[in-house]
Amino acid sequence: DIKAIILDLDGVVTETSEYHFQGWKRLAEEEGISFTREDNEQLRGVSRSKSLELLLGDYIDNYTKEEFQEMMDRKNGYYQEYLTEMGEEDLLPGARELLDEIKERGLKMAIASASRNAKTVLKGLDITQEFNTISDGYSVENAKPAPDIFLHTAKKLGVKPEECVVLEDAESGVDAALAADMVAVGVGPKERVGHGDYRFDSTADINLTEFLDNLK
Ligand code: BG6
Ligand code: MG
Predict the structure, then answer these.
(1) Is 169 tagged catalytic?
(2) Prediction pTM value
(3) Which residues surround ligand 2, an ion (CB under 5 A)?
(4) What is the structure's pLDDT at 19?
(5) Helix (H) and strand (E) counts in the chain
(6) Hey, is 93 helix, strand or coil?
(7) Which residues have CB under 6 Å of ligand 1?
């Protein structure tokens, strides 16, 4: 039986990818490196350090460890500027209804996000109190696609992995959910999350009641 729903944050509950893009783009411009919206798609669900590695590509050899750290901090500063303007209006369509549905069904509910800003984002959206537990970019060492963050979250909830449904918009997140032996539900296009157990085009398309009833 399904006892818990574990939600990814960026891309499932709210759309922060534009803010991440603006932050990375600003940094890339300052460093004289090209970075397009398309390049940004590869960073979906990917940790901050891995994102910078991808952005730099071969240029990574031109930088010291300290410079790498400084660039991560600089981008995060830009990202956090955008976050100060976040509010309830930044919930993705259907997200509010989804959270209510999970609650009404008596299921446990958690966030498992790669972001070290997850708690700030949840606060901005004013939904922190909705969750039984919140795992973020500080919770585990091995980022998605490793299953660690989901297993850690299940443990905190006191449920078994097979009792969890994961909602994920990123390729690496679906990989992580599958590796954790959870029901992996992709939210987004087939090309990105078609390898999950199930898929919905968007958060607004998730009919949880119908989905869970058919799962049994
Ligand atoms: C994920 C985002 O949720 O968090 C990624 O999808 C982001 O784009 C990652 O890089 C890490 O976020 P942060 O806030 O720790 O830099
Ligand atoms: Mg995501």
Answers:
(1) no
(2) 0.96
(3) 8, 10-11, 45, 169-170
(4) 94
(5) 10, 6
(6) coil
(7) 10-11, 20, 43-48, 51, 76, 113-117, 137
**Distance (Å, whole) CA 137 – CA 31:** 26
Q: Is the ipTM of this structure higher than 0.85? A: yes
Mean pLDDT for the stretch of residues 104-129: 97
CA dist 93 and 96 (Å) reads 8
CB 182 within 8 A of CB 23: no
Q: How far is the CA of 109 from the centre of ligand 2 (A)?
A: 16
Task: Name the DSSP letter for residue 91.
Answer: B
Annotated catalytic residue: which of 10, 136, 148, 175?
Answer: 10
The answer to whether 35 and 25 have CB atoms below 8 angstroms apart is yes
Q: What is the DSSP string of 12-40?
A: TTB--HHHHHHHHHHHHHHHT----HHHH
Residue 20 CB neighbours (<10 A): 23
Residue 6's identity, in one-letter code, is I
